[in-house]
Amino acid sequence: MADWSLLPEELLNIISENVEDCFDIVHARSVSNSWRSTFSFPCMFRRQSYSLPSFANFPSESKDLCTLEKIPLFLFRVQTPPPASASEYFLGGIGRDESEDQTELPSPIQCSVKAKIPGSDPTLMNMRDGQIFPLGHQYRISCDSKEYRSLAFLPLHKEGREEFIVLLSFGRFLLALRSSEMKWELVMGFKAPSSDNIVTFRRRFYVTNHAGMTMIYTFSIDPLLHLTDVMPLNHTCSLVYLVPCGNDDELFLVEKFGSYSRVSNLCRWTCKVSRLHEESDLWVEVSDLGDRVLFIRQQGNVSCSAKELPDGCGVSGNSILFTNELDNGTYVYKYGVDTGREEDDLNCWRFSGENRVTILSTSPVVNFRVEH
What we know:
Blueprint: H1 9-18, H2 22-29, H3 33-38, E1 48-53, E2 65-77, E3 86-93, E4 112-115, E5 123-126, E6 131-141, E7 148-158, E8 161-170, E9 173-178, E10 184-191, E11 198-200, E12 205-211, E13 215-221, E14 227-233, E15 239-245, E16 250-261, E17 266-277, E18 282-286, E19 292-296, E20 302-305, E21 319-322, E22 327-335, E23 349-361, E24 366-371
Parallel strand pairs: 19-21
Antiparallel strand pairs: 1-2, 2-3, 2-6, 3-24, 4-5, 7-8, 8-9, 9-10, 11-12, 12-13, 13-14, 15-16, 16-17, 17-18, 19-20, 22-23, 23-24
């Protein structure tokens, strides 16, 4: 086979002008040092950061700074030679290997994730030969406060200026920061148990919180920081998750219920999924997610389309996968699963039992294996 690293420079320049897909560029940069110098690193992989005032001692003002980072988020499927009995996936942020500028490396790693498997040291995993699917971005903030829980970032477009609002959960309060003022302020009217659910959807923030054990409230907050109640959920559930889909296409609410079985001494989990009807601000229960897969994570929930995944890879559409806890024997959730037990309701989401899933790591990158 010809040595692609020895391709004439004029041909290499022609190739670089016609390669548009960011993952093709990643692969091209991994051929050799000359290819790496010709192909610029894809801008969508670069991590944008903002310096913000610290909120650790709020309401007291601080001269200290914290860093807000915008991290590209991807789903990786590791290529395995056939016949493989399982598919391995990584879900998380992508980064450049710190050693890529060392020109003596003949084949530098251009696409990697840092995986932390329990019982081992963090390892940079080369994703150059895997399938990579972009899932948007997530935001992380550097903060030493134990009262900080979660945040969301809302970009604003005002007369050609790029402005933004950051909303975060701090103790029992919501704090907001406008880029035009660079000062944290209390969102009035909101005082409740801290929430892990803060997302943006169609130029608004959405927040959920429990009111005791009997009701769940969802609030929407506009760019002026005005609060509006979305229809409360008048029933008890154990856990609640907000999952935005696509480019402001849909917003889903996943509720997880646990019921104890005296016969098996096990807790059986079921889910209910609702979609936000934007015009009426009502949650409408759904039984079909189309080709979507909803991933529930520790660091923000995401979704992707299963259309681009090959048949038989173990992950299919219209399903929910909980990756927020280590588990050596879980399954995806499907709607209308027949368990064979008369007491089990068909009108809900529960374990499908189709493909066994092993959650190997939950942070900083989710690593899971799906049996075929």
